[in-house]
């Protein structure tokens, strides 16, 4: 997983808004750009077809999508165009940078759990390629990093061995001598 700083702010804001808004209350998500609209309506359907393989921040996108699918009220997406909405955005940014900042969503506390009833997993067979299948297998069977093991000394490192006395034979003698 990549660092939290890489996660798009609009994705975090949308996840926060969907988590604090009741499921039966209307929700209007307005953004300064079309990135969230493009994410929800253009990219997510393609990512679902591919089984979420090789998707950056997929756990956050899937959590947002799961919350959106649970909603029973009107949910709309759009880009800010009117001056009133720009003023509202500016005042929200000022509030977020003020003393209320500690009460806002922190990614360390963000729970990207998904409701299994609304979570689509697996890739569509018609969009599957051998390369995509291989990436999916590697991604799903990735083993966690092992903890570091103590170093084994080099094979030819000088070692001191204490040997027990043994019998020794000299040339020309048939019986070994004791030390």
Describe the structure concisely.
The chain has 179 residues and is mainly alpha-helical. The protein is built from five helices and two strands; from the N terminus they run αβααβαα. The chain has a single domain, classed as 2-Layer Sandwich (Nucleotidyltransferase, domain 5), CATH 3.30.420.
Written account of the structure:
- The chain is mainly α.
- The chain has a single domain (4-140), classed as Nucleotidyltransferase, domain 5.
- The chain has helices at 9-20, 35-49, 58-70, 83-96, 130-140; strands at 27-31, 75-79.
- It has a two-stranded parallel sheet with strand order 1-2.
- The longest helix is centred in the N-terminal third of the chain and has 15 residues, at 35-49.
- It is extended and about 95 Å long.
- The termini are far apart.
- The model has no long low-confidence stretch (mean pLDDT 76).
